[in-house]
Design goal:
It is built from nine helices and twelve strands. By secondary structure, the chain is α/β, with parallel strands linked by helices. It folds into three domains: 84 residues, Arc Repressor Mutant, subunit A, CATH 1.10.10; 99 residues, Periplasmic binding protein-like II (D-Maltodextrin-Binding Protein, domain 2, 3-Layer(aba) Sandwich); 103 residues, D-Maltodextrin-Binding Protein, domain 2 (3-Layer(aba) Sandwich). The chain is rod-shaped and about 105 Å long. It comes from Actinomadura chokoriensis. Belongs to the LysR transcriptional regulatory family.
Length: 301
């Protein structure tokens, strides 16, 4: 199918005059007439009835005009969609978030992305541990991840977002809640609730590293997979937990948060995706997410 002939025919059918149609198409009249003749020859039917005074559509021409308009409309729509895809204006992205990012950033992300990339459909998976995020990025289950380095996988591109200070979540009636700040040595003889070692949590390694650096011995009593469960157990008085500062948005009754000091410790938050992923809508989303995270405020201490 020659789309040019199709467009020529539609214009002639709308004008019912070869001279006006040629002017509208910015071409000479003889080539336009020849193109319509070729179209009729290819179809084996007369689409137009021509006289010296007027041009009229035949019954076949009227039927062909309706279908031609639909075809051209679909072609134009497809071209518009292709340009939008190439510009990164449409698409779908699934974002996996570590626990602290789930609670502190998801509301700002969902609002900000919908505002700045309205044609891109976003879905979110919260409470993911970093090893699960890396595996999901590899399989394509998620497209982007808000995760905590270090990431050893060379197939991933990882860009820094921010540094989060560590705090200690303690039961409100615990003796540590009376302190203005807590040191690692203060936790030496305290029951700890940590993220799961079996699932290779980054925060589990961070907490053990803190004790190792100070020579103190951790007393781990509970291991959990989700940050929300961890804080719930703290609220239940089952122990204390070292968590990134954004977790403070989980302001459960019975939980107090105190800064971790001597020295103050931070953990990084980063955004990661498979390096081979070069879709325009993904490339557009990354700087938007980085800006939203940069502008997001931590909860007040």
């Amino acid at each position: 199918m020659d789309l040019r002939q199709l467009r020529y025919f539609v214009v002639v059918a709308e004008e019912l005059h070869f001279g006006r149609a040629a002017e509208r198409l910015n071409m000479a009249q003889p080539p336009l007439s020849q193109a319509i003749r070729r179209l009729e020859n290819d179809l084996g039917v007369d689409l137009l009835h021509r006289t010296t005074r007027r041009v009229e559509l035949t019954d076949a021409g009227r039927g062909y005009l309706a279908r031609a308009r639909r075809i051209l409309g679909e072609v134009d729509e497809a071209a518009h969609e292709a340009r939008r895809v190439a510009a990164g204006a449409v698409g779908h992205l699934a974002i996996g978030c570590v626990g602290s990012a789930t609670y502190s950033l998801l509301p700002a992300l969902s609002r900000g992305l919908a505002l700045e990339l309205p044609g891109v459909d976003f879905s979110f998976r919260g409470e993911m541990l970093v090893p699960d995020q890396v595996a999901a990025l590899r399989t394509g289950e998620i497209d982007l991840a808000l995760l905590r380095p270090p990431i050893a996988d060379p197939s991933l591109t990882v860009l820094p977002l921010r540094r989060d200070r560590l705090v200690v979540a303690v039961p409100a009636d615990h003796p540590l809640a009376a302190l203005r700040q807590v040191g690692v040595t203060d936790l030496a003889d305290v029951d700890l609730i940590v993220h799961s070692a079996d699932r290779r949590s980054v925060m589990y390694d961070v907490v053990l590293g803190l004790f190792r650096d100070t020579g103190a011995e951790p007393r781990i009593r509970h291991e959990v997979g989700e940050t929300s469960t961890l804080i719930t157990l703290v609220a239940g008085g089952l122990g204390v937990a070292v968590v990134p500062e954004p977790v403070m948005v989980l302001a459960l009754d019975g939980v107090a948060y105190r800064p971790l000091v001597r020295p103050a410790v931070h953990v990084d938050l980063a955004i990661g995706h498979r390096t081979e992923r070069t879709e325009a809508h993904l490339a557009r989303a990354v700087p938007v997410i980085r800006r939203i995270v940069r502008d997001a405020r931590h909860p007040p201490r």
